[in-house]
Specification:
By secondary structure, the protein is α+β, with helices and mostly antiparallel strands. It folds into two domains: 220 residues, Rossmann fold; 125 residues, RNA polymerase II/Efflux pump adaptor protein, barrel-sandwich hybrid domain (OB fold (Dihydrolipoamide Acetyltransferase, E2P)), CATH 2.40.50.100. Helix content is 24%, strand content 34%. A six-stranded mixed β-sheet has the order 7-8-9-3-10-11. Strands 14-13-12-16-22-15 form a six-stranded mixed β-sheet. A five-stranded antiparallel β-sheet has the order 2-1-4-5-6, with helices on one face. α2 packs across α3 and α2 packs parallel to α4. The longest helix is centred in the first third of the chain and has 14 residues. 39% of the residues are buried.
């Protein structure tokens, strides 16, 4: 593996109906996860980093190499960037053996055949398919092909490794082993990497930091556990499995745009700053009539869906007539017995109640 290098990107790209404006710095050996809904700009970002897209302005530097400098007219093409890619599909050459697939990159760089073959077989051993070196892709399972693809991405010793949802196409049995393998190989090799994923577990296991894209802009960023434990956007809340309500911090509570107060425990929040109230769906009690007594956070919702989840059922809410828009998308996790006892169906109006002790209020600093 080559010495770890850092990444510095500042770029804008404008197309009909969409624009991307990003500024990123990734430290040598760091893994950065990029999250975001469809259309947020993740693929565009990967295109700029890989060389498939030219930004309209800005620069890209990997280590001491300038790969893009729009003002200076510099643009290094894909094959000279030293950037590796592991995508959803393995995309192996069907007519080559696993070893020949992995050796292809080093050979294209001018590495002698014997050295490239030795490197390929060593990497195949590291990813756990050394005994399959002479097989062609058609003789390998999907998980085995993805392991070969990882070895192939690492074989040219890239300064930067791009991981484009590398586990999305794997079956449920192969995914945990591949995730663990990625963590070991990337960490042991101190590989600088950028991971695009929709899976919070991928980010937690593999990434040091997270960037959340929304509408071509960075909506939030920070240490992985901080972003997923204290989300500042609806998307990161959903991917972390949490409920989120936006508003303004007010005297230890959250005041929504329509003036409703959500009570909770404030976490480093200044009155008047943008903030969010966050709580897990398991903290939500569901009632068919408005509850009385201790709950301080009570709001009416309309059930949009009932989703079985193992030993619980997730009740997904929408906003009924006259209810605030932030109700839409909230969720509650209850037992199947509770659902049966309430006798509720999609389209019914119910009440969500959340104790203040279960709610955390975080500033969004935006």
């Amino acid at each position: 593996m080559s010495e770890s290098v850092g990444l510095s990107l500042q770029a804008s790209l404008h197309r009909a109906g969409f624009s991307l404006e990003v500024s990123l710095d990734v430290a040598p050996g760091e893994v950065l996860a990029v999250l975001g809904p469809n259309g947020a700009g993740k693929s565009t970002l990967l295109g700029i980093l890989s060389g498939l897209l030219r930004p309209d302005s800005g620069h890209l530097r990997v280590g001491d190499r300038t790969l893009v400098d729009v003002d200076a007219g510099e643009f290094v093409p894909v094959h000279r960037r030293g950037v590796g890619l592991l995508a959803q599909q393995a995309l192996l050459f069907p007519h080559l053996s696993a070893a020949a697939n992995v050796a292809f990159g080093p050979r294209a760089q001018g590495v002698p055949k014997a050295e490239a073959d030795e490197r390929a077989r060593d990497l195949l051993g590291q990813v756990g398919v050394g005994e399959l070196a002479d097989r062609r892709p058609s003789q390998l399972s999907g998980g085995q092909q993805q392991r070969v693809a990882l070895a192939r991405a690492l074989a040219p010793q890239p300064g930067l490794l791009l991981l484009d949802e590398p586990l999305a196409a794997l079956d449920v049995d192969a995914t945990p082993a591949m995730r663990t393998l990625l963590r070991r190989v990337i960490r042991d090799g101190k590989q600088t990497a950028l991971l695009v994923t929709h899976d919070a577990l991928d980010a937690l296991v593999l990434a040091d930091r997270v960037v959340v894209l929304s509408g071509g802009r960075i909506a939030e960023q920070g240490a992985t556990r901080d972003v997923l434990a204290r989300p500042r956007s609806s998307f990161s809340a959903r991917i972390a499995g949490l409920d989120l309500i936006p508003g303004i911090a007010a005297s230890g509570a959250l005041r929504t745009a329509d003036g409703i107060e959500i009570h909770g425990a404030s976490v480093e929040v200044t009155d008047g700053e943008p903030a969010v109230a966050v709580f897990p769906p398991s903290a939500v009690a569901v009632h068919t009539e408005r509850p009385t007594g201790s709950p301080r956070n009570v709001f009416r919702v309309r059930l949009a869906a009932l989703e079985p989840r193992g030993d619980t059922v997730r009740l997904r809410a929408s906003a009924p007539d006259g209810a605030p828009a932030w109700v839409d998308g909230l969720a509650a996790d209850v037992t199947p017995a509770a659902v049966a006892e309430m006798g509720v169906d999609p389209g019914d109006d119910v009440w969500f109640a959340v104790k203040a002790a279960e709610v955390a209020v975080h500033g969004t600093h935006s």
